[in-house]
């Protein structure tokens, strides 16, 4: 800090912050320079930083601010943001974090100080939370095994592609198939990873899954545009051709939809964000990764298991670690950071807080509102791209420009497809009033639809967007 800057800081009462700063003091700097036989910090910079990359002048910085002044300035900038309600979906949804979880987990450093619970004797609480997360994922996906979270859904899908290659001993193909209706961010990450793995990639309709010579395939369930299709015939046909299959799914939808394990999936991945984790400007959000027991030695990430301590008491530990510092590189099953422990624990506690019935109520309400919206739009003459849905509708043949204008007036964000279609994804935070506002946005003010009347019709007719063959029958 220059003398002029220091004087300004003193005038602005910065001293309180400077005393807490972890940087070197003036005495520290003097001692260092003396040991180096130098007079000024500029001498050190000239001898260590090549001249061709030095700026050659002082940084053009604003006058210094005190800590309180800086916070007020940042708050002032934040107030300029325009906060809108998002119906974009595509893997990111509004959710309510229970206050008890926010206060006792998210805001409690005891839950997030350890990247990995290497010392199980002092990490039993976090280990139990992660074990709970694994069980939630296993119950909802219908798979035999789940790990303790991955980085996000897109990288989990890329890890699934790698696992398909490692685990498929019957196929000599070097090609991986991705359905063209997966989330765009997932497709982008899978493309990037495939390039560096040396894999070839094929994209196409999910129905073509088994018509290619590939070692593995990825499909979305429900699809990115909201369709709920019966995957059992596709996955069965793939198995007959020795194609390993990965289903990217949504945990909340699996409360009502038939579980992918029951449909024949080899791997199930997805995002646990809508289990109480705020959208957070796109991340981070804990992914889940579930598979069959026979693939446990190849699964990426870590698995928490139940063991016994030296006195014979039940204890928890990391039963498997497939990418850690003490594992030889050629033995690791992943080369990326493979955990989101804090957010996985939040998602697991969210499921515990609500319980099975609570989750059914939330998923049922989301689906009922989506069905109510769908029925109203159809009565108004709007064409839906699909006859099935869980929480997402895709509108075709509409004037996206007019809809966008009305949406901006109501501070609403929708999903606008490249071909002019419009997508709407509902979530836990959506209310009946919100659906009425959506009718105004999508149809204009003269639509004449009453949410209460539509709801009576939906209940009376037993209307549902989930095909009977896709409805969950097992308990959890």
Automatic annotation (TrEMBL):
SUPFAM superfamilies hit by this protein: PLP-dependent transferases
Domain Glycine cleavage system P-protein N-terminal, first and last residues per copy: 19-442
E.C. code: 1.4.4.2
InterPro entries according to UniProt: GDC-P_N (IPR049315), GDC_P (IPR020581), PyrdxlP-dep_Trfase (IPR015424), PyrdxlP-dep_Trfase_major (IPR015421), PyrdxlP-dep_Trfase_small (IPR015422)
UniProt catalytic activity: N(6)-[(R)-lipoyl]-L-lysyl-[glycine-cleavage complex H protein] + glycine + H(+) = N(6)-[(R)-S(8)-aminomethyldihydrolipoyl]-L-lysyl-[glycine-cleavage complex H protein] + CO2
CDD domains, per database record: GDC-P
Task performed by this protein: The glycine cleavage system catalyzes the degradation of glycine. The P protein binds the alpha-amino group of glycine through its pyridoxal phosphate cofactor; CO(2) is released and the remaining methylamine moiety is then transferred to the lipoamide cofactor of the H protein.
Name used for this protein in its record: glycine dehydrogenase (aminomethyl-transferring)
Lineage, opening ranks: Bacteria, Pseudomonadati, Pseudomonadota, Gammaproteobacteria, Oceanospirillales
